[in-house]
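request received
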Amino acid sequence: MARKTLSVLLMDPPYESNNTPTALRVIDAALRKGHNVNVFAYEGAVALTLKGQAPHPNPVKGTTVEQQQHPTPKDWIAALMKSVQGDQKIDWINCGLCVDERGAGDWIEGARRGSPADFAKMADASNQTLVIATR
Amino acid sequence: MAKTLSIVECAYRGTIEEQDDTVLWFNQAMVNAGFEVDVLLRGNAVNYAVRGQDVSGLRFGAASLDNPPHIDKDVEWFQAKNRTVYVVAEDLADRGIDRAELVEPVKVVPRAEVARIVTGYDRVYNW
Amino acid sequence: MANYVLVESRDPFEYQDAQAFYDLARDLTKAGNKVTFYLVQNGVIPARRGCRFERVAELAQAGVSVIADDFSLRERAIPTGKLHDKVTVSNVDALVDLLMQDGTKAIWH
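response:
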């Protein structure tokens, strides 16, 4: 049976919104169910895939980096990208102009640069599209 | 081609740093790429249809904002591209905005009409 | 008539705009559409029985299927037994199934 495709547009930067883990939960569920997923990261969401994200110790809790066991959002996204099976696809696009104005061009492998026209084309070719806007 | 309605509620978020409203801008980009997108302004975003919004003259030290956003002109842009901009009447009234203050020709619609408008589109994005 | 999945992530105490989204769910249902209203994140807060915001019950009475996300409930320590009796608990897998049904229009607030 042909795979269905879900497209999702995100806007929130990491660590700033409950939208981010919810969106990743939806993407994870869609991938586990065998769907293809497109993600268009707009505005602050282009920082989700930044390679330089690093975990830190927690001086309030007195824990070390190792004890914190703290995957950063880019690790979650990399894991989602790795989870695809067979011909299944996840296409993660970072809005290019948003990347430029934030200096956020150093992203993990698997993401690519794009534009709003790419999102519109993705949406047109998808079975379902979610826009998860910021507040 | 699928018809899309973008409902815009949030207003003046990042508009000065971006020199645009990023949601209106995104929808303009989709229109420029040939997609059929209309806009419905509600909540605080109804203020986007008010003529004369002005943030000129802003400066931080020697760095000045020389190209401020003109969001009312962006609303007019959609009309010039034969796209519809709806504005929810009660949201205007709640905020004391008189229809004479609006750019033309936005389509002021009662709140009760929003569901009917939504059903006329293949995709609806809420921003 | 069409099938709608409306995902409400905002709570009406913090965001007045949530009222308009509840209005949309009600009005789409009145017009004969099938509407599922999926509460997630702080959107689950009004699902608590006794919450002063009573529109969850209004939607359910109007024929809207009101669902609360299990993870969001657990995150906020809202046990199933404290929910309004018209609210069903479900999960993100079921949400994806609803979203991916042919002919479904989805709106996220």
